[in-house]
């Protein structure tokens, strides 16, 4: 019994954020509702493409095919431009929890993120940061920046732009599931992904050298609720959803960090080696890149939004949390 | 009524509509639309689903394999490569009783490695192999039967539109599906050749008429000629399958490279002009649109099943009655044989996979292997009456009025039986499909 | 009836024109992917945006060709039962065929109806796919192609239903590329 609510995502139910959603978020919401003497939900969970595929969640929630769900924001550079904030600011933080908190503070202090979801007929609850940091996995050892000359690297989205300043290095677009094959067969000699994914896709077999370049942690998910559905909920129920969403966000960041260290150990166990990129090299890599953060901010500013202000605030939050940027994208002219 | 019952009724309604002659994508889309409308008591919901299904089903990179491999197959057929392969095979097999039949199978198997269509195989080999077998006093039913039976190889041996379709709906890699199809395809070819050999020994009258003379064909070739005729084909196969296997090319890129190479070969041999080139492109577009519209409608159908909870309920049913994996496979094969009486291969795959995939996935089976089973099972329908597309193509291509459609079906029957046997072997030994996978 | 035949001819001309355009897109697909492969392997310079362009061209191929596929009766169907019925009861078969075409007209109309607000949205918002700075393509041409295609398909089904010209006894062998 209870109020029916359809929960959707296109990824398989074994995915880390869905395991946490299913085992923590949904039962915890009901537990707190019950505690407060409110009507609980009867959650109908539909994952793994039974209603929408991963790219279709945003549209599915907009059109009411689901009442709540997890939007993978990296697919929607057009509809959700503000969500790219972490992707365009590499080389600052590799701590999922810090990034997650900073993103949500930006969402609360500036109207942009919520407005973008509102125009998709959705209410934003919390961000999801499910990876600690992008790293470089290669077929041959890379110890310095110079070793990366003429390297062909598999990547996707904004990651590909990280290579732009590197001498001769080229990005080849591919999905996470293609990386193993691309590297194995020499289409590329390296791939950018995070340790947990590297472990899942057995990257150690083909690219046993991980360069810990700490490109950075990126927000890729958002937990949202269909706005029409939201409007039917009492303020008390809305408050419970919002509170638990924050706990869910922090739990997920914690799990992401745990999995990262477990995965790095497994990578070494499977015959991989891990080399740290020197701070000097990391700084020169960051310096070599075009300032994609300001490009991004300028684009938003031009559209009458708070691009530069968000960028500035976001980086300051990371610094305040104890991070040291290899390059401060917002302060340079 | 429970959602599960409504969902089940709508599946049955859909099959009935298809049997009545409703366009298959329309039947899939329409029934799914109405079912969701009833289940959720909202017109907006199925409309939203339709939007999503139409919008994102076609915008997928791997779909590009369909036009590319279709175009390659059409160009290669126009270049006369089928005839070449047949002459090569005839030189190999001509001494044996039933040898022309074996040559047809062998030629089909090789030709299949560059074309993804059974129609192309059936029409090419009806023109070259059937007249030759009639001349050599072969039984007419055998002559057309062997062409029909071996035409299905085109869709099992990669490249194959059906392997691509399965890869898309089951979210498997197209490259893996192609690799998995190689051994089953070779096995089926071998089984056909063996069956012909056995038939020629045990029931010679089915193979050749009374007083048959096993004359040597006139166009036997020297080793040099054999090499010359085989090289272009081998080059294409190496480019396409080699490119995929080594990973140098994605399946999409391999398709594009194969299409370009096939075009170069056709031009080099003077077998193509601007008009036939345009026609091949046109035909490619038509086939692509028909298949992808079907896939779009099928994605609507599989979402409807998900909303009604049909696969979950079927899974629970199997669990309750302690029906294991074997029962699922028996159900699957029987359903495919039943649908195969009237439906085309792509439609069978698109109807069966969304029903069974959620059931077999938790059983931990290899989904690439499952795809091979579904594709071969669905292709048996090409050979079975009343609607067997390969048999129809042969009947409509053949000029001999004494050969009836019934003759074609009767001739194809032993080959359909061989297919079923091979299918059972493949079900029993999944390693045969998975051993080449990386 | 004459009016309908006129309309039917107009629809045919449009369908053929879209079809020819779609055919050129097939050629563009072959050329583009091969150029990318060559450029990547010989010059270490893959084209940015090939992936997105392929997605974009696929939509164009499918929806530009669809009305013509319907026009020449090559949309996938299994009309064996209808053909058998046509031998004994030609009139009944004709009626069923018309009902089927009417239902198909409605379904294609539903697609047009569903996609219209999406076209308005993507046109108004300038929505795109891809990554800024690497490659982006606008969404609206996709929605426009789907809208035009489904509207024309619906109209072609309507003329088929009204004129009842299509002979159910005729079988289509190459449908779905089997
Ligand atoms: Na083939
Ligand atoms: Na059949």
Short synopsis of the structure:
The complex is a heterotrimer of chains A (333), B (438) and C (178). By secondary structure, chain B is mostly helical. Chain B has helices spanning 3-20, 24-40, 44-57, 65-78, 81-93, 99-112, 118-135, 140-151, 153-156, 161-169, 174-202, 204-207, 223-246, 251-268, 274-308, 310-320, 325-340, 345-360, 367-379, 389-397, 405-428, 431-434.
Overall description:
The complex is a heterotrimer of chains A (333), B (438) and C (178). Chain A has eleven helices and eleven strands. By secondary structure, chain A is of the alpha/beta class. Chain B is mainly α and 438 residues long. Chain B has one domain. The mean pLDDT of chain B is 85. In chain B, helix 2 packs antiparallel against helix 3. With 178 residues, chain C is mainly α. In chain C, 75% of the residues lie in helices and 4% in strands. In chain C, a hairpin with a 3-residue loop joins strand 1 and strand 2 (135-138). Chains in contact: A-B, A-C, B-C. At the A-C interface, strand 7 and helix 10 of A face strand 1 of C. One sodium ion binds at residues 340-341, 381, 384, 387-388 of chain B. Residues 112, 115-116, 154, 157-160 of chain B line the site of one sodium ion (NA). Chain B: It is found in: Cell inner membrane. Chain B: It is a multi-pass membrane protein. Chain B: The chain crosses the membrane at residues 6-39, 60-80, 100-130, 142-169, 175-199, 220-242, 280-301, 321-339, 346-363, 369-394, 415-437. Chain B: Residues 11-430 form the TRAP C4-dicarboxylate transport system permease DctM subunit domain.
């Amino acid at each position: 019994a209870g109020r029916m609510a359809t929960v959707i995502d296109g990824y398989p139910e074994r995915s880390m954020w869905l395991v946490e959603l299913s085992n923590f978020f949904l039962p915890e919401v009901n537990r707190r509702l019950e505690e407060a003497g409110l009507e609980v939900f009867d959650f109908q969970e539909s994952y793994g493409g039974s209603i929408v595929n991963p790219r279709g969640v945003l549209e599915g929630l907009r059109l009411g095919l689901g009442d709540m769900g997890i939007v993978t924001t990296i697919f929607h550079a057009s509809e959700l431009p503000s969500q790219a904030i972490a992707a365009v600011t590499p080389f600052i933080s590799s701590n999922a929890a810090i990034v997650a908190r900073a993103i949500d503070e930006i969402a609360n202090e500036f109207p942009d993120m919520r407005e973008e979801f509102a125009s998709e007929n959705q209410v934003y609850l919390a961000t999801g940061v499910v990876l600690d940091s992008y790293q470089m996995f290669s077929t041959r050892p890379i110890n310095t920046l110079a070793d990366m000359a003429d390297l062909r690297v598999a990547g996707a989205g904004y990651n590909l732009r990280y290579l732009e300043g590197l001498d001769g290095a080229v990005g080849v677009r591919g999905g996470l599931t293609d990386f193993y094959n691309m590297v194995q067969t020499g289409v590329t000699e390296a791939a950018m992904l995070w340790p947990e994914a590297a472990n899942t896709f057995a990257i150690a077999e083909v690219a046993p050298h991980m360069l810990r370049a700490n490109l950075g942690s990126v927000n890729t998910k958002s937990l949202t609720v269909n706005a029409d559905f939201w409007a039917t909920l009492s303020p008390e129920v809305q408050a419970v959803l919002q509170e638990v969403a924050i706990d869910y966000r922090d739990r997920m960041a914690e799990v992401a960090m745990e999995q990262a260290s477990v995965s790095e150990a497994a990578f070494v166990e499977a015959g991989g080696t891990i080399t740290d990129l020197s701070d000097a090299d990391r700084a020169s890599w960051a310096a070599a890149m075009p300032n994609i953060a300001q490009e991004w901010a300028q684009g938003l500013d031009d559209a009458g939004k708070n691009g530069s202000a968000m960028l500035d605030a976001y980086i300051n939050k990371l610094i305040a949390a104890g991070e040291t940027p290899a390059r401060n994208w917002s302060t340079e002219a | 009524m429970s959602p599960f019952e409504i969902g089940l009724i709508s599946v049955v309604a859909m099959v009935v509509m298809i049997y009545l002659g409703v366009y298959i994508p329309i039947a899939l889309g329409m029934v799914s639309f109405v079912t969701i409308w009833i289940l959720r008591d909202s017109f907006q919901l199925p409309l939203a689903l339709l939007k999503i299904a139409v919008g994102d089903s076609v915008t997928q990179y791997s779909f590009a394999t369909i036009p590319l491999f279709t175009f390659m197959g059409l160009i290669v057929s126009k270049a006369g490569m089928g005839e070449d392969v047949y002459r090569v095979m005839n030189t190999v097999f001509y001494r044996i009783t039933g040898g022309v039949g074996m040559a047809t199978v062998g030629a089909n198997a090789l030709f299949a490695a560059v074309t993804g269509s059974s129609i192309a195989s059936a029409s090419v080999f009806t023109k070259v192999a059937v007249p030759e077998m009639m001349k050599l006093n072969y039984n007419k039913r055998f002559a057309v039967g062997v062409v029909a039976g071996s035409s299905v190889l085109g869709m099992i041996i990669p490249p194959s539109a059906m392997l691509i379709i399965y890869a898309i709906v089951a979210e498997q890699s197209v490259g893996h599906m192609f690799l998995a199809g190689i051994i089953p395809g070779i096995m089926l070819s071998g089984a056909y050749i063996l069956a012909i050999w056995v038939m020629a020994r045990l029931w010679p009258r089915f193979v050749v008429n009374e007083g048959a003379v096993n004359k040597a064909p006139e166009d036997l070739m020297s080793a040099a000629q054999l090499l010359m005729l085989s090289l272009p084909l081998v080059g294409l196969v190496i480019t396409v399958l080699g490119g995929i296997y080594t990973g140098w090319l994605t399946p999409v890129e391999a398709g594009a490279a194969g299409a370009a190479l096939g075009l170069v070969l056709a031009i080099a041999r003077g077998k193509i002009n601007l008009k036939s080139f345009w026609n091949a492109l046109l035909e490619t577009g038509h086939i692509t649109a028909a298949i992808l519209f079907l896939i779009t409608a099928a994605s609507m159908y599989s979402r409807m099943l998900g909303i009604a909870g049909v696969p979950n309920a079927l899974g629970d049913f199997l669990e309750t009655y302690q029906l294991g994996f074997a029962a699922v496979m028996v159900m699957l094969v029987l359903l495919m044989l039943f649908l195969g009486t009237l439906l085309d291969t792509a439609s069978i795959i698109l109807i069966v996979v969304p029903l069974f995939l959620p059931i077999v996935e938790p059983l931990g089976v290899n989904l690439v292997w499952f795809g091979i089973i579904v594709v071969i099972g669905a292709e048996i329908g090409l050979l079975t009456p009343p609607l067997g597309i390969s048999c129809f193509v042969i009947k409509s291509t053949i000029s001999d009025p004494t050969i009836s459609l019934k003759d074609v079906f009767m001739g194809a029957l032993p080959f359909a039986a061989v297919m079923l046997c091979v299918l059972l072997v493949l079900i029993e030994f999944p390693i045969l499909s998975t051993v080449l996978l990386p | 009836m004459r009016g309908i035949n006129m309309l039917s001819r107009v629809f045919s001309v449009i369908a053929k024109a879209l079809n020819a355009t779609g055919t050129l897109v097939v050629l563009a697909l072959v050329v583009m992917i091969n150029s990318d492969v060559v450029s990547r392997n010989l010059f270490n310079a893959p084209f940015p945006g090939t992936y997105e362009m392929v997605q974009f061209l696929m939509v164009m191929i499918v929806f530009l060709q669809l009305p013509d596929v319907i026009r020449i009766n090559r949309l996938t169907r299994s009309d064996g039962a209808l053909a058998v019925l046509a031998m004994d009861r030609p009139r009944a078969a004709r009626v069923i065929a018309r009902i089927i075409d009417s239902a198909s007209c409605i379904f294609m109309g539903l697609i047009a109806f569903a996609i219209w607000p999406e076209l308005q949205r993507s046109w108004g918002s300038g929505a795109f796919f891809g990554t800024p700075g690497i490659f982006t393509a606008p969404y609206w041409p996709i929605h426009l192609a789907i809208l035009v295609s489904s509207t024309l398909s619906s109209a072609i089904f309507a003329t088929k239903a009204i004129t009842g010209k299509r002979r159910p006894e005729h079988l289509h062998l190459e449908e779905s590329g089997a």
